[in-house]
Amino acid sequence: MRSACKLILFIIITYYVLVGTHAIAQELSAYEEIDNQSVGLTVAPFAKAGQCLVDIDNNGWQDIYCLKYNGGGYSRIYLNDEGMFTDVTANTPLEDIEDIEGIRTFTPVMADFDNDGDKDLSFGTNLHLHLLRNDDNVFTDVAEEMGFIGPQPPGFIATWYLMVGGWADYDLDGDLDCIVFQQNNKNVYLFRNDGDQFTDVASEAGLDSTELSEEPFSNPLVWEDIDGDGDPDLHGRYNFFLNEDGVFHDVSDSIGLGDLSEIVNREFFDYDNDGDLDFFKITPSAENTATNELWENKDGLFVNVTDDVGLGIMKDRYRGLSIGDFDNDGDQDIFIQLNIFESPDLLLVNDLMEDGSRVFANVARFVGIEKVGDRKGGGFFDYDRDGFLDIYIPSAEYDHLLYHNLGINEANWVGFILEGTVSNRDAVGSSVTLYYAKGKQFRYTKCGNGWLRQDNPWVHFGIGYETTIDSVVIRWPLGYKQTLTDVAINQYNNIKEPDLSGVKSEESQNGHPSGFGLAQNYPNPFNPTTTINFTLSKTSHVKLTIYDLIGKEIRTLVRDEKEAGNYTINWDGRNNMGNIVASGIYIYQLEADNFTQSKKMTFIK
User: Fold this and answer.
1) Do 261 and 293 form a contact (C-beta atoms < 8 A)?
2) Is 512 exposed, middle or buried (0-12, 13-18, 19+ CB in 10 A)?
3) Which H or E element spans position 198?
4) Do 41 and 51 contact (CB within 8 A), yes or no?
5) Which of 98, 108, 128, 444 is deepest in the core (most CB within 10 A)?
6) Which phi and psi (to 5°) does residue 67 adopt?
7) What is the pLDDT of residues 260-269, one digit of tens each?
8) Residues 219/161, Cβ–Cβ less than 8 Å
9) What tens digit of pLDDT does each residue of 170-220 get?
10) Are 339 and 317 in contact (CB under 8 A)?
């Protein structure tokens, strides 16, 4: 205990030397390196360059996928059971796929594409796309039979680098779709998930590469709700696309991010706790003229605040980026993993100053992050579920670098493991806002974080030495808002999206819904039936109507007075005369009090 106290004192003194005497006092945590063999991380003899840090088997413990980048060997999957890892790669075809001369592997992303409760594995190589369906921890490649294929490009191209950007429910139909980028040919594939088949809809979604700028992507596309409207948008290395009813439009210039350059990795996160997503990017090399940059979101326009927060002088050869509150003080910090043999990684602590400004300072060597060498693609996760974020880094010299967060400052925290019911099972695309005495914090959940990495998807908040939370508001991917009160801290709370399968569901935990709302129908497209959810904040006369595209009324589903609450209505594809309608697109509209909202849906015979 005495040594721990000395360490805390040393860190605090050093920290104030770094950031000055006007920071609001906080105690940092510290890391220790874990011996690989002691936790079951076996020797993995291959060139490593990335990871997925997710709960693959849905047992409540975060697992590790370690990527084989090039050369011989094959990737590894380690399942975590109460802090001990077991290599289950033998249950996969990874050796047959990857242990072949000349094969390179890129951008692994794990997602529950079939909504069965476990994570499936998607990745690209320099020849093919692969989709390994997970059935009770046995993986089978179903890419070809499900149409998850990146065609060979025209011309004299011997290899084509296929990179999985990530998964999101871009069309809000309740299942996850996938964006894929072809690096050396600038092709983009948007694979819509149609249940038993994937369909490339990139062109109809406005992502035809022939119509995009000269170098639109350069790195895998990543899903993000840039404008906070509830549907997933896309961003590449230099381009930003807003999703408008399933069609994407380049808004890079209009949001202030049209002149970015020299980026290897980037991330959206709410660095200033004001409830919207800011943008951070890192440079690929110290030789580049650009620097790391932080852009603050000010009412939808991004403004460069790099120098204001002390980040402008930091340059090196960066190969990994991860965001998380490592010291649980309520501010999200930045871990930047390097690939220079003599340079240690950076751990940039985010500190709130007394005047309300913020500053980042590198505290890596003061908290035990000291290893150097060949390493790529590290990230935050919580392998022992103690609420303090650990760090995993694939490494050539050490096989695996696992830094355990000791949590010596004993700050409080709260976590959430979300499960969709009407929305996709992984709840990808949810936003979570926490309210407490110090203000609020905001998180957005996504599946895939960019080049060579997929970070921990659990929602984690540090709350410092606060002992209570006022409320937590979850906006589920299909639009339903749920408010939680009396939330237990210092534990992960398993939250399932409310089941709205009845005519009327239970009220949210803080009473009636806070507003009127109409969710996207599920499934969509559909046959023979679909479900429509809506919410009422007060007793109202309600009309829910189906129209065709020329405005003709097809079916009136509700015309009645309803009390405040959450409602679910099913439509069987029949008109007011009881006849099955023709295949096509229909509009459904909710009118209640002074509220009117409409959405599209597709019926397929």
Assistant:
1) no
2) middle
3) strand 198-200
4) no
5) 108
6) -85, 130
7) 887 878 999 9
8) no
9) 999 899 999 998 877 777 899 999 988 999 999 999 987 644 445 544 567
10) yes
